Amino acid sequence: MMKYSVLLLSFFFSQWSLGIVGGHEYVFDDGDEVQNETRAQLFEKLAVELRCPKCQNQNLADSNAMIAGDLRRELYEQVKSGNDGESIINFMVDRYGEFVLYRPKMNTMTYVLWFGPVALLLVGLVCLVFIVRKRKQNNALTDDFSQEQQKRLNELLEKDKGGDHV
Amino acid sequence: MKRWALFIPFITFTLLGFLLWRGLYLDPKDIPSALVDKPFPEFSLPTLIGEELKTQSSLEGEVTLVNVWGTWCISCKVEHPFLVELAERGVRIIGVNYKDENDAARKWLVDLGNPYEYSVDDVDGTLSMDLGVTGAPETFFVDAKGVIRYKHQGVITQGTWAPLEKIWLSLVDESKQAVNP
């Protein structure tokens, strides 16, 4: 209830915005309405996209590790003082390596990561096309009974009708 | 369909299996440090004892182990006796006291021995953040020019020292060659 009334207040008075990350509230109140809101959003976005360097698979927002708390505070302070997303990401990568990026940078190391799935999909599609075309060809072949074959088939069917087939 | 094409699924399976099998034996915590081969980050911090201001230039001139520790860190207690032993053998060790209480830290050094030439008091963790420290203990191998050459995460004990000693010796050799080639 408290949280909602705070949100409501911030909505009406617009002097500050809240970034809510991992159940904690972070206040952005240095600039005008628009600036506060964009900074709060940038903060929330980065806290989710940056990985806790101590943890195997948690972002900064979710982790309880000491280092994650420190980095959340650092992130908050950098966003609040107006640093843009790219410079903050560079700050983190310079210290903790690309491990901390849940959205990896595109470079020769990560091409496989970025384009692998699309490449596999294309390979699958090509295979599918080949198989379908081949099957069509085979069907075309079997459809093409020679007259002699057709005659023989008719004879066999005729024969079968006559006999008392059990 | 050509006969060899029948083997494609089998080959794919084998390759994928090999890849995943390899993955089982990789250590996911083994993250390459972003700071290896970079100069030691700038800092200006007081020492724990004596409150003398030190900067990154105080590391230069000699091969140094920079050990990040804290009294709140249990593993630090495990490695401490071996650090004392290394210091006695003449290894230069400098401490970074990471987010700690000064009194507790000083008591620790009195009770357990002080292997550090000095420890800087990184009370708010800024130097440790610049070092990309994720926990303690962590130890940086810094060459005589003040460049970080290796980072060891976890304890240094008799058991883990052997490969680290090679690194340390090679750095010492390098610094001697630089002095008299």
Structure description:
The complex is a heterodimer of chains A (166) and B (181). Chain A has 166 residues and is mainly α. Chain A has 2 domains: 2-100, Helicase, Ruva Protein, domain 3 (Orthogonal Bundle); 111-162, no CATH class. Helices cover 63% and strands 6% of the residues of chain A. Chain A has helices at residues 2-13, 33-49, 66-80, 85-96, 111-143, 147-162, and strands spanning 17-21, 24-28. In chain A, helix 2 packs antiparallel against helix 3 (66-80). With 181 residues, chain B is of the alpha/beta class. Chain B has a single domain (35-179), classed as Glutaredoxin. Helix content of chain B is 39%, strand content 18%. In chain B, strand 3 (64-69), helix 2 (74-88) and strand 4 (93-98) form a beta-alpha-beta unit. Chain B starts with 7 loop residues before the first helix and ends with a helix. The A-B interface holds A 53-54, 56, 65-67, 70-71, 74, 93-99, 134 and B 1, 28-29, 31-35, 99, 125, 129-135.
